Amino acid sequence: MENINLDKTAFQITLHGGNAKDLANDALVAAKKGDYEQAENLLAEADKEFNLGHEVQSKAMQKDDKDNRIVPTLLLVHAKDHLMAAKTEIKLIKELIELHKKLDK
């Protein structure tokens, strides 16, 4: 079984989580300006970035079998936390955008 570079994995997860959060926040800015089409496009990109981070995380977890246990580092734990925070922000921003749409009617 191939070894994985945990630091590289952690940085990839953090990168995609950060990109997802940035895109979601950009979507909220667009919605506040009334540009809901742009907001939806940015949210779709945020979801893609989150999914890329989740894919990296899932691949690492698949390598964690009983013969080759992954010992989590603080950096890896931080990365996973960062990714889950991104998911939470995306969900909340989607709700905020829906509220903006209702207020604009």
From TrEMBL:
Cofactor entry: Mg(2+)
Active-site residues, record numbering mapped to chain: 78 (tele-phosphohistidine intermediate)
Membrane-spanning segments: none
Binding site for Mg(2+): 81
Annotated positions of the Phosphohistidine modification: 78
PROSITE patterns the UniProt entry points to: PTS_EIIA_TYPE_3
Cofactor binding comment, as recorded: Binds 1 Mg(2+) ion per trimer.
Source domain of life: Bacteria
Keywords: Magnesium, Metal-binding, Phosphotransferase system, Sugar transport, Transferase, Transport
GO molecular function, one term: metal ion binding
PANTHER family, per database record: PTS SYSTEM N,N'-DIACETYLCHITOBIOSE-SPECIFIC EIIA COMPONENT
The protein's name in its UniProt record: PTS cellobiose transporter subunit IIA
